[in-house]
Amino acid sequence: MKIETLKIYMGDWQFNAGLVGFINIIQHQDIDLITIRKNHIEFKAECLENFSEKYFSYLTETYKPYTSWYKITSYKENINKYEDSDYENFDEKNLENLNNYIKNILKKQIKSNSYLAAYELILDKSVLDMEKNLSPIKLKKGESIKTVLPEVKEQISVINDTIDFFNRDETKKYILGKNIIYQFIKNSWNGVSFLNPQTKEKDFYEDYNRYFINPALEYIEANKEKYKFNCFLCDSEMKDMNNTMSFLNHTGFDTSRKASHAWNFVNDIAICDLCKLIYSCMPAGITYAYNKGIFVNENSSIENLIKINNNLKTRVFSYGSNDRDSNTYRALINSIEKEYNEKFSYELADIQIVRYEQLSSDQDRYKFNILSKNLIETIVKSKKYLTYLTKTYYSENGNTVNIYEETVDRLFSNQNMYTLIHKCILYKNSNPNQNYYNESHIFNLLKINIEYLKGVGYLEKHELDIVDKGGKQGYYLKLAYKEKGSVDKVNGICYRLLNSLKTSNQNSFMDTLINCYLYVKKPVPQIFMESLKDEDVFKNVGYAFVAGLTGEIKDKNIEGDK
C-alpha cells in the first residue's frame, strides 16, 4: 500500500508537548524530513525508521550534563589537571573531593540497579571488579599529603579505567539511556514499554520499538475502511479501544479496573497508535531541570510553539547548576520578554504555562496558569526588579524558600505580593542571620507589586517612586532614633506597624507613626497624608517605610533630601 504524506494537528497541551518533542527528535537528525505548517506538521513514514535510536539520541544529547553518567566521566578533567602538574598542586581539598567522588558517585552508581541492568545489555561486567579496587584514602592527623600520593595515583589509575569503560560507545548508549529513562522520561509517562515492571524485553530500545513504533507503522499501513471507532484526539478511524491515555502521568485511568470513571461504565476515550507515539515524545518537548519542568503551550501556531519552548530550553541550560533553584523560572521570564519584544503574537491570545514539580521520589504534580496580555506586560515591566531577587532566600519552618520563585509563582497565579512582602520584612526583623536579602530586595518586591496592581487596574496614577520615598522616610526615622540613643526601640515599632498593615488598619498605623515622630520632634512626612486616600497606596508606602526602618544604618546617608 502506498503511504501518503501524514498530517498531525495540534491538540491539548500534552499532545503539543509531544509534537514539539517529535519535531525536535526528527530535526536533530535531519531538518528536512518534516514540513511545518500553521497548525499541523506533514511527514512521511520514513521518519519513523530507527526512531528509537533518534529518540534516545536527542534526549541523551540534551540532558547528558544532568545525568549520573556525566558526573562519573566529567571527573576526567580533574585527573588531567593533576597529571599535567604531576600532582604538585594536589592538596587536602583535592583529596576530599576525590574521596567524595569515589564514595558518593562511583561506588554508589556502579552498583545501582539501573546500572546493573545496563551491564546485562552490553554483556560486560568488568567495571564491578574495578569498583572493588576503589576506596577512599585516609589522611592521618599530622600526616603530609605527599605521604598518600602513591595511593592517590593508584586510585586515579583505577578511576581512569572506570571512566574509559563508561566512555565506550555501547556503555554510553545504555547507561545514558537508563539515566534518561529514570530521570526524565518517567516524569511524562509511566507503566508501559520499558517503564512497565513486568516487561519481558530487557533492551529498552527494542521495547520502545515494540510498544510505540511498530504499532504506529502497522496503523499507518492498515486499511481502515472497516474500522468502527475513532481516535479521541485526532478523530482518525481505529480498530479497537485498547490504547487509553492512562500511561500519561496524572491523565486518564485504567479502564479495565476503573470503569466507574467513564460515563455509564463504558469508556469512550481511546487514541490511535500514531497519537500514542506523539504522546511518548513529551519528554523531548518539555524542559526538565532539577526536579522541575516547564512547557509553554503557545498554541497560535506550531512555529511559535517550537520557538518559545526551544528558546526556553536553551536559556535554562545556559544558567548552570549555581542557579538551579530559580533557573527554570528565570529562563521562562527571559523567553517571554524576548518574544514579547519581538511582538510574537501575544496581542492575539493568552498563553498557558504548565509547570512540573517533583515533590519527592514518588510524588509529583503539574501546575497550570494562563498568562493574559496584561499579565505578560506586567512580567516584562518587572523583569529588572525580578532579576535582583534571583539569589534571595528566607527560612520558614526549617525550609529554605527562594523569593524569586515565590514572586513568579504569585504573578503566574494572578496574586499580589502583600503577604510575601510582610513575611520578608517580618523574618528580616526577627531572624536576620537566617535570611539572605536586605531592604533593597524588599523595595524591588514592592515595585513588582505596584506593576502588578497597575496591570489589574489599581494605582494607575502613581509611579514607582512612592516606594523609594517611603523607604527613605523609614531610614531617616531610624537615624533619628539612633541620635536619641533609642535605636533598640525600632524593632518593637516595626512589629506594631506590620500588624497595622496586615489588617489594613490605617488609624492604628498612623497613631504609632505620629507617636514616633513626636518622640523625635519631627513632622510626619507629607507622603503619609497623601497615601491615606487610597488603601493600596497606603500599604505600599507603609511597607516601604517599615522596610527602610529595618535597614542597616550606613556611614553615609542614602541619596535624596531628608
Descriptive overview:
The chain has 562 residues and is an alpha+beta fold. 53% of the residues lie in helices and 9% in strands. The chain contains 22 helices and 11 strands. It has helices at residues 13-29, 51-63, 68-73, 76-84, 92-110, 113-122, 126-132, 149-167, 169-183, 204-221, 273-280, 302-318, 327-341, 373-387, 403-412, 418-430, 439-455, 465-483, 490-502, 506-520, 526-531, 535-549, and strands spanning 6-9, 35-36, 40-43, 229-230, 237-238, 287-289, 292-297, 351-360, 363-371, 393-396, 399-402. The strands form 4 sheets. A 4-stranded antiparallel beta sheet has the order 6-7-8-9, sandwiched between helices. It has a 3-stranded antiparallel beta sheet with strand order 1-3-2, with no helix packed on it. Helix 1 (13-29) packs across helix 11, helix 6 (113-122) packs antiparallel against helix 9 (169-183) and helix 12 (302-318) crosses helix 13. The N and C termini lie far apart (86 Å).
Secondary-structure blueprint:
Elements: E1 6-9, H1 13-29, E2 35-36, E3 40-43, H2 51-63, H3 68-73, H4 76-84, H5 92-110, H6 113-122, H7 126-132, H8 149-167, H9 169-183, H10 204-221, E4 229-230, E5 237-238, H11 273-280, E6 287-289, E7 292-297, H12 302-318, H13 327-341, E8 351-360, E9 363-371, H14 373-387, E10 393-396, E11 399-402, H15 403-412, H16 418-430, H17 439-455, H18 465-483, H19 490-502, H20 506-520, H21 526-531, H22 535-549
Antiparallel strand pairs: 1-3, 2-3, 4-5, 6-7, 7-8, 8-9, 10-11
Helix pairs in contact: 1-2, 1-11, 2-9, 2-10, 6-9, 10-11, 12-13, 13-14, 14-15, 14-17, 16-17, 16-19, 16-22, 17-22, 18-22, 19-20, 19-22
